Amino acid sequence: xxxxxxxxxITLSFSDKEKVNDEIVISTKDNSYAIIxxxxxxxxxxxxxxxxxxxxSSESLHLFTLTPIDxxxxxxxxxxxxxxxxxxxxxxxxxxxxx
Length: 99
What we know:
This protein has one domain. 0% of the residues lie in helices and 39% in strands. The strands form three sheets. A four-stranded antiparallel β-sheet has the order 4-2-7-8, with no helix packed on it. A two-stranded antiparallel ribbon has the order 1-5. Strands 3-6 form a two-stranded antiparallel ribbon.
């Protein structure tokens, strides 16, 4: 799974086999920090999360390896936790869900 974080006028360059199913615009005026965690029932994933990172005007790509536990049709998504401080341990601003 790929989660791309960047400015809202970013140009996506995924191959034809890859899809972007959801997009959320987040204001970064107040130096927000984030942690991205895959939410993928039916899969094991690595890493468990991105770790804490600064949301700024640069582009960053976060990759997760998903390994299915069983066969079937699944929804693959990610949760984005927003924080005010660079250790991402308290004062959560909001939580976003990407599908």
